[in-house]
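Sequence and structure are kept together here, with a separate record for every protein. A complete record is shown below as an example:
=====
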Amino acid sequence: MQTPVAQDLAGAVMRSRVIDAMTDAVIVADPQGTIRVWNRGAEVIFGFSPQEAIGHPLDLIVPERFRAAHDAGFRRALGSGHLRVDGKVMTTRATHKYGSRLYVDFSFGLLQDETGAVVGVFAVGRDVTARQLAASAQS
């Protein structure tokens, strides 16, 4: 029988393995917008390795023309403790390491501590560039 500490550690290891194995991007940023978690799915979609992304700002993947709006929304969510897009999947623009433009379906959430204070933001994303381009070509 495992001790509670061993169970917590085993659970944390399992969660980490699941996140790393996901084909969807999993990104976690701290309240300053610095990337703290970057899984294999994020590497495949955006082209940056974890070593290149972790410790850098989210601007790494936010196109320059959308940064002001992104930053304002990020600050608003942190300040209010609520997301305007809570529970919704949003198709957003993003930038690949080599400059190509991407469309990514993202769902977002706030990470809160035991007191309810926001300690970070997470996003789970899927590359939908091919779908968006095909839809644009048909219209």
Summary: The chain has a mean pLDDT of 91. The chain is about 40% helix and 25% strand.
